[in-house]
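Minutes, project huddle
Topic: does the predicted pose make sense with adenosine-5'-diphosphate bound?
PN asked that the exact inputs be recorded in the minutes so nobody has to dig through chat later. Recorded below.
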Amino acid sequence: ASKYEKQNIEKLSILFASMAHEIKNPLGVIKGIIQLITRENSNYDWEAFKIIFSEVERIEKIIQDLLDYSNPQLVNLDSFSVIDLINEATGSLLPVVKEKSLLILKEYDTTIPQIFGDRESLYKAIFNIIKNSIEASYVGGKIDIRVRIVVDIKYKEKDKDYNYLLIEVEDSGEGVKEEDIQKLFTPFFTTKPKGTGLGLVYSQKVVMEHKGFMRVKSEYKKGTKVSIYLPMRDSL
Ligand code: ADP
Ligand code: MG
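Predicted holo structure (tokens), as shared on screen:
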């Protein structure tokens, strides 16, 4: 096998191992509780069932994210506006935005051309990034979403310069601890009690399939800026 194939196999084994682990943990908890409450004379209480319920929910969530995020392929290629995607995402996140009294400020270049790609996958990627910012924000916080065209950024795999559409999502929320920054794109890395740690991995995969790239800047307790660069070409 080539060096590349070996690396891929290695990555897959790590992924499978962490998947197994993530699902085995809640199953172990459920099994333990069932053992306790099925013991003779056990005076089980409803708390036990509540724990079982929330562990089942956790497994369901992991499986749902794995399904949503598995194999993002560029199947339905189309031209569309990322502004529409952003508006749809913030629209469906409005209930949480209101609940936390957040302010979302949008700032776009006047002429943003459409881009070519898989609308559905990019929507999910952008949705997750905005959702992360909302979740990291403190009550009453502000999130800036900017879209602009940047030129002459050298994409390391190509010799050519391209124009990129840059989407920035910047919050002034919890931020990421310095030691965690490099873990952000690792499957199952999450700091949230109900998180799965699959969103950013998925987003990055989709962006890379569009020949783009992502950058994250963050300061613990101060805020985070996620930048998505998408090349402006009419083919992929
Ligand atoms: P999840 O949202 O399920 O935790 P993600 O892959 O979307 O999974 O994010 C992984 C982790 O990265 C989060 O748990 C959080 O610790 C960190 N993170 C992502 N976005 C932000 C953000 N805007 N601010 C602070 N931390 C973030
Ligand atoms: Mg997320």
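Observations noted during the meeting:
- The mean pLDDT is 90.
- The CA atoms of residues 108 and 147 lie 5 Å apart.
No decisions taken; revisit at the next huddle.
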